Amino acid sequence: MTVGLWRRQRSWLAPALFLAPGLVLFLVVIIASSVETFWISFYDWDGFGPMTWIGLANYTELLDDPQFYISLKNNVIWLLMFLLAPPAGLAIALLVNQKIAGMRLVKSLFFMPLVLAAVTVGVIFGWFYDPTYGLLAIIYNAFGAQAPALLSDEYLVTFAVAAAALWPQIAFCMVLFLAGLNNLDEEQIGAGRVDGARGWRMLRHIVLPQLTQVGFIAVAITIVGALRSFDAVSVMTAGGPFGSSTVLAYQMYEQSIFSFRFGYGAAIATILFLIMSVFIAWYLRGLIKAEKGN
């Protein structure tokens, strides 16, 4: 009887069994954790002792916290700088997609940042920015100039850290666009050549329209990556100097782990989640619209 039931219901039962572990993991790790974080944000809690209900006090304090606005501003800087990744990734993908001798080696060099851990990238750029012995110092000394201490400058440090994190993000976008270029419709390209499309005209009228969905995915993932930035800040500056490079994710971590203010950290996490939800909703709306268009 069990075998007969399986045969009758396997059209939906088999996919359900395969999806169940991932779905359970998503519900526990993502949904349940998000709900619990939101609940904790209404309490004053040091992470160990009893929790004290304080209502919206954490959010009220957050709105009066100058560091919150510095972190929010830094997230906006990260977002604007990260939006350079999709066009840069597309340009590199178009370059390395050419059938030229030695291009495989060039492609590997551009791909390398993607396989490096974010911590490794932070350490590498920490050495690069060193104003005394780093590569930046060597370049400046070659021109008889003194290299700026970027990671110690409160006005430039966020740009320096975001530039370091931008390196692997460009590589990621390059891989996405390479996949898109390898799936172009050869018939459309052939028809364009017959009509005399070359160079920029071919790119604009034939290639780019076919990369619309890939570009949309690249932009969406890049935006989310900019908003959840943490690793590079933690490794390169730990939020310094004087909190000038802190982003929302790092401020949440700092308040929770170092200051033992888990309720306040949860409030920051909730605000960050709401901001990210706007972009996630935009992404899903665009994805559904693209699917209906097909």
TrEMBL record:
Q: Which residues form the signal peptide?
A: none
List GO terms (cellular component aspect): plasma membrane
Record key words, sorted: Cell membrane, Membrane, Transmembrane, Transmembrane helix, Transport
What Pfam families does its record include? BPD_transp_1
* SUPFAM superfamilies in the cross-refs: MetI-like
Q: Where is it located?
A: Cell membrane
Q: Which residues form the ABC transmembrane type-1 domain?
A: 71-285
Q: Which residues cross the membrane?
A: 12-35, 76-96, 108-129, 155-181, 202-226, 262-284
GO BP annotations of the record are: transmembrane transport
Tell me its family.
Belongs to the binding-protein-dependent transport system permease family.
PANTHER family attached to this UniProt entry: ABC TRANSPORTER PERMEASE PROTEIN
Please report the name of this protein according to its UniProt entry: Sugar ABC transporter permease
Q: Which organism is it from?
A: Pararhizobium polonicum
The lineage is: Bacteria, Pseudomonadati, Pseudomonadota, Alphaproteobacteria, Hyphomicrobiales
